[in-house]
């Protein structure tokens, strides 16, 4: 892959939330929700961003789109036909508005991401209205086309979101995200709130749409089965940092970070004879306000050594396109699907 | 849903609300009362043979009878006629005052809630200052300064009630702007104005509308209070509040003088309350009964 095919580059992105205390409301500490993540995303790629709840996946997604103001770092978007990337983190509001046509998001919960007081037709066509694309009748036609593309009927236009099931609502949200023909879609737990059977439908739909519209996805999820099904590459997050990133099959077959190992061992396998040596992590995720010194993962890591308690591991490239942040990465013999 | 007929094309939000209101008994009662009020205000003069202000010393303090269904007052004026003419003042004052409250209060509330920071601090401290001054004193001061008359009553009462709307709307905005659909609106590129007006304001309106109906009632009561203090409607204006105040002195000799204007106020208040409740339910499609 050449450098030209890169769509999005994230450099050391940080998002810290202040905690206010006392009557003077002074910042007593910081929640380091996202604490320096770096990623490169190629056109047409589907990246899975996985981790436990509270590890900063969602905050990362929102910061990339600048729905949250990042604390530090850069998000470079290589827009079509432009040599220089747009730095999303510093772009002025006008540029951001233009950029919204290229970057969209699908939220986890379609119950709350759709305005209950708008008809489905106006929800789906609103992006066109906001960006002043087409005449009202064109917009309506476009919305109808999009609804059909996601498997709904044209005469659903006049209904309200509450008249639809969860799966249908998520389709409406997807239609809205597709409306501006974006290049990048961040799917923030887009299927987690749905029934398993509906999940499969929506995933299939997203995969089809990817081929049809040449989309690039960032799939934020905690569901590794979903990750394995839809992504080409995975980044594993733990406590605001990426601990490992690799091609999907590579990660499943040969994890290099003990945390990835534990996650992968937890994926259910549909075979009753399959005896898995499930690795149960001890304790809870430490607080992102006061993370443990050294490697953030060391209190729960069964391989932890002295160096892990004292020194923060660097995020290094183990082999091409394979990054890991562990002192012991090449010394351990970790469990995996293939072994 | 299965029973609803498949409607063609987009049914607008308002049309949907109106359709839902048709099935609500409270809405019918409230609408009925309001329609009657508007009818009396517009065409009342053709119904009654009497003049509201003409004094007739042959017919003083007559109890309700066929020729004077609600009796006459101490000057021999027909109470029913005066109540009918009073509809116009009640509606005018109620709607105008709430109009002022709504425009001022809701705009400030939206700005304070949405932008936060200095904007919020300035607006909300202004509200606090307003709240620190007793309403009665403020209204009396303004009405006293401006002098009597309906127009000045509207200004005086309009100046004191908006702060409640600001607080109400600001609180609603604070919860509304955390909603995912508001962030979603930002994600598709909506500007502040569109987010405020299209996404946040409708979300905040349900309690405001309920409050508006109460506000009309309160405005009528306030104007009555000012009239009672001699700063509102001037005699012989047939304003209900003034009539109520007048009749108080004659409670012993003619209970009907104060009672019927009171009933008129009560029925009007009730009507606006029914209407407001029904409107609030109808504007929120989630409350629609699903079959």
What are the key terms here?
heterodimer, A: 339 residues, alpha/beta, Rossmann fold, four-stranded antiparallel beta sheet, B: mainly alpha, MetI-like fold, disordered N terminus
Based on the coordinates given, report the CATH architecture of chain A. Answer: 3-Layer(aba) Sandwich
Q: Biggest sheet of chain A: strands, sense, closure?
A: 8 strands, mixed
Shape of chain A: globular
Q: Which value, in Å, is the CA radius of gyration of chain A? A: 21 Å
Highest-level CATH class of chain A: Alpha Beta
Give the % helix of chain B: 55-70%
Rounded to the nearest angstrom, the distance between the terminal CA atoms of chain A is 30 Å
Q: Which sequence of SSEs, written as H and E, runs from N to C of chain A? A: EEEHEEHEHHHEHEHEEHHHEE
Fold blueprint:
The complex is a heterodimer of chains A (339) and B (291).
Chain A lengths: L5 E16 L4 E17 L3 E5 L6 H8 L7 E6 L8 E2 L5 H7 L3 E4 L13 H11 L5 H14 L16 H13 L5 E5 L7 H18 L2 E6 L2 H7 L2 E6 L2 E7 H6 L4 H8 L40 H5 L5 E4 L2 E3 L15
Parallel strand pairs in A: 3-8, 3-9, 6-7, 7-8
Antiparallel strand pairs in A: 1-2, 1-4, 4-5, 9-10, 10-12, 11-12
Helix pairs in contact in A: 3-4, 3-5, 4-5, 5-6
Chain B lengths: L12 H9 L3 H19 L35 H37 L1 H16 L2 H12 L3 H27 L3 H8 L4 H37 L11 H9 L6 H29 L8
Helix pairs in contact in B: 1-10, 2-3, 2-10, 3-4, 3-6, 3-8, 3-10, 4-6, 5-6, 6-8, 7-8, 8-9, 8-10, 9-10
Task: Describe what you observe in this structure.
The complex is a heterodimer of chains A (339) and B (291). Chain A has 339 residues and is of the alpha/beta class. Chain A has helices at residues 57-64, 93-99, 120-130, 136-149, 166-178, 196-213, 224-230, 248-253, 258-265, 306-310; strands at residues 6-21, 26-42, 46-50, 72-77, 86-87, 103-106, 184-188, 216-221, 233-238, 241-247, 316-319, 322-324. An eight-stranded mixed sheet of chain A has the order 6-7-8-3-9-10-12-11, sandwiched between helices. In chain A, strands 2-1-4-5 form a four-stranded antiparallel sheet. In chain A, a hairpin with a 4-residue loop joins strand 1 and strand 2 (26-42). In chain A, helix 5 (166-178) packs parallel to helix 6 (196-213). Chain A is globular and about 65 Å long. Chain B is mainly α and 291 residues long. Helices cover 70% and strands 0% of the residues of chain B. Chain B has ten helices and no strands. In chain B, helix 2 (25-43) crosses helix 3 (79-115), helix 8 packs antiparallel against helix 10 and helix 9 (240-248) packs antiparallel against helix 10.
């Amino acid at each position: 892959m050449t450098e030209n095919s890169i769509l999005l580059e994230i450099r050391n992105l940080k998002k810290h939330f202040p905690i206010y205390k006392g009557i003077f409301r002074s910042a007593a500490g910081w929640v380091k929700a996202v604490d320096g993540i770096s990623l490169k995303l190629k056109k047409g790629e589907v990246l899975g961003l996985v981790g436990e709840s509270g590890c900063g996946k969602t905050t990362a997604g929102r910061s990339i789109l600048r729905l949250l103001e990042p604390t530090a770092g850069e998000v470079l978007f290589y827009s079509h036909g432009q040599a220089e990337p747009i730095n999303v983190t510093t772009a002025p509001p006008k540029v951001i508005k233009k950029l919204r046509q290229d970057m969209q998001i699908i939220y986890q919960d379609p119950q709350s991401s759709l305005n209950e007081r708008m008809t489905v037709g106006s929800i789906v066509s609103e992006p066109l209205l906001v960006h002043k694309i087409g005449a009202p009748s064109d917009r309506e036609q476009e919305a109808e086309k999009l609804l059909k593309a996601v498997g709904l009927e044209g005469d659903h236009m006049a209904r309200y979101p509450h008249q639809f099931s969860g799966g249908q609502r998520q389709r409406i949200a997807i239609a809205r995200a597709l409306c501006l023909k974006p290049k990048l879609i961040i799917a923030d737990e887009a299927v987690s709130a749905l029934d398993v059977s509906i999940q499969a439908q929506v995933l299939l739909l997203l995969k089809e749409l990817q081929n049809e519209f040449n989309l690039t996805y960032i799939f934020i999820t905690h569901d590794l089965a979903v990750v394995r099904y839809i992504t080409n590459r995975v980044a594993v997050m733990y406590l605001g940092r990426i601990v490992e990133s690799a091609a999907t099959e590579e990660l499943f077959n040969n994890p290099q970070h003990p945390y990835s190992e534990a996650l992968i061992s937890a994926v259910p396998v549909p075979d009753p004879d399959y005896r898995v040596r499930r690795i149960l992590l001890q304790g809870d995720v430490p607080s992102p306000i006061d993370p443990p010194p050294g490697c953030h993962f060391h209190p729960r890591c069964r391989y932890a050594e002295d160096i892990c308690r004292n020194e923060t591991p660097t995020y290094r490239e183990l082999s091409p396109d394979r990054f890991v942040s562990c002192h012991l990465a090449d010394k351990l013999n970790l469990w995996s699907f293939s072994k | 849903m299965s029973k609803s007929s498949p409607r063609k094309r987009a049914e607008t939000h308002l049309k949907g609300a109106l359709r839902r209101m048709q099935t609500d008994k409270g809405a019918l009662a409230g609408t009925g009362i309001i329609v009657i009020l508007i009818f009396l205000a517009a065409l009342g003069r053709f119904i009654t043979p009497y003049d509201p202000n003409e004094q007739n010393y042959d017919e003083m303090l007559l109890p309700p009878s066929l020729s004077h269904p609600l009796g006459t007052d101490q000057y021999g004026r027909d109470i029913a006629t005066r109540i009918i003419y009073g509809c116009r003042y009640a509606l005018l004052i109620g709607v105008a005052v709430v109009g002022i409250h709504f425009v001022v209060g809701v705009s400030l509330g939206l700005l304070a809630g949405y932008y936060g920071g200095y904007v919020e601090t300035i607006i909300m401290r202004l509200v606090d200052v307003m709240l620190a001054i007793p309403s009665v004193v403020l209204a009396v001061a303004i009405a006293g300064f401006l002098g009597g008359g309906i127009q000045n009553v509207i200004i005086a009462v309009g100046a004191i009630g908006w702060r409640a709307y600001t607080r109400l709307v600001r609180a609603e905005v604070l919860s509304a702007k955390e909603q995912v659909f508001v962030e979603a609106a930002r994600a598709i590129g909506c500007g502040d104005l569109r987010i405020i007006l299209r996404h946040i304001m409708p979300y905040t309106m349900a309690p405001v509308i309920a409050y508006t109906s109460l506000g009309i009632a309160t405005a009528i009561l306030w104007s009555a209070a000012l009239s009672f203090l001699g700063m509102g409607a001037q005699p012989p204006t047939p304003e209900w509040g003034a009539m109520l105040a007048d009749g108080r002195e004659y409670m012993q000799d003619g209970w009907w003088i104060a009672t019927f204007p009171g009933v008129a106020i009560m029925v009007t208040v009730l009507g606006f309350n029914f209407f407001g409740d029904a409107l609030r339910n109808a504007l929120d499609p989630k409350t629609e009964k699903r079959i």
